[in-house]
Amino acid sequence: MSDQLFARLRDQILTGEIAAGDPLPSERDLAADYGVNRHAVREAVKRLQQCRLIEVFHGGRTRALDWRRTAGLDLVVDVPGTLDAVSVPGVVHDALEMRACIGADAARLSALRASEDQRAAIVAAAAAYAEVGEDLEELSVADVAWWRLIIEGCGNLAYLLSFNSLVDGAITMEQASPELRSAELLDLDAHRELADRIARQDAAAAEQLARELLNRSVARADG
Amino acid sequence: MSDQLFARLRDQILTGEIAAGDPLPSERDLAADYGVNRHAVREAVKRLQQCRLIEVFHGGRTRALDWRRTAGLDLVVDVPGTLDAVSVPGVVHDALEMRACIGADAARLSALRASEDQRAAIVAAAAAYAEVGEDLEELSVADVAWWRLIIEGCGNLAYLLSFNSLVDGAITMEQASPELRSAELLDLDAHRELADRIARQDAAAAEQLARELLNRSVARADG
DNA sequence: GGCAAGAGCTGGTCCAAACAGTTGACCAGT
DNA sequence: ACTGGTCAACTGTTTGGACCAGCTCTTGCC
Prior knowledge:
2 copies of one chain form a homodimer. By secondary structure, chain A is mainly α. In chain A, 69% of the residues lie in helices and 2% in strands. The model of chain A has no long low-confidence stretch (mean pLDDT 88). Chains A and B meet through helix 3, helix 4, helix 6 and helix 9 of A and helix 3, helix 4, helix 6 and helix 9 of B. The structure holds a DNA duplex.
């Protein structure tokens, strides 16, 4: 119940139907309008508040914020397609572009900082990647796990959390039509080569190849 | 009430006091233990769920997730110091490093994509920056607004939302001790030069200078 | 006209109850 | 001894109503 109300209000704010600064209906009105209990409304409102989509004033009215200035990256995490189709066109391209930016720097830093065990794990994962087969669904999962190793290797928590947001959210759309990624996913040589460059601690070369790999998805999303 | 309970449970999960897979106490028990109403507990639980720190099963027990694999970037947005001091040391360094990564690429893309108006706004902001004075608090605010213009110029929503998360969260810690940043904030020439490179649409040069500027904060956080 | 008391909104908290799904123990059969 | 179903005791979900606390605008007095 509260989930549906949350999604509905969120979309109204994201689309501008409720503009920044506008007051939301009171909790009692929302409960009456949507035929739910006020406690369900409060749960939805709390979540909107945590997304920094609204501002709540005790005694006053709850108002929509300018989400472009306040909301965080977790906004893109949701039912695949909702944001891109309904509210914010182009968010998939943006998420892929950001993944490329983060992933390339993570590859660089991983080459510099990853422990011996972590580098070995990356090499092993690249080798195991060839065993996955050609099922694109499984390849996608393996691909995400592979990048996660690289990002964990660089030891930056912010990169890791961003990756979670991007993978759980918009990028899952891409998994829904994985044929778009088949070329990238099947490029076993590139995976092995990137693992090798990280293992050799050649930061610049690792960054370059990672960027090249990830930018393919961006280009594919554009075309 | 629910905010306090949320923060408490969140810290217990982040510190590992409640490990991944462990069940949380039932809502009724939590309400009794902390002396609050069950609805307050439910609001806190809903927020934890949205942060992807827990998984809720109707009829079953609520369990903690492995937040390193599921949580999003918005986790770093909180009362300044909580995460770094209590739960996750080093998150400020990580956030600054990520800001450098994002900011540099945004500067590059801004040089490529920003409209004429946006480029003019960036140049104007760089000029106006000199008028702010030497109050470090105000300079910090102006600095954030300045980078926001660049990130808006690149037109990537994911970058913008990430910037919001980073600025609202961990980086506000830095503002608490702005003397650390004074050298960077007072570097008017670098600001003007970066604006100029974006205005000239010299993407590579803009990226390089932006990275140089932002990496100073990272280096300062390290030292 | 200016100011203060109050009514009528807003969100914040609480109690109590019924609903719905899961789990596990228990007992009747094979 | 094992299998199968039943039931009671959990879990989260939703509802209703009541009251407190803070803001705002109206009202009415000075």
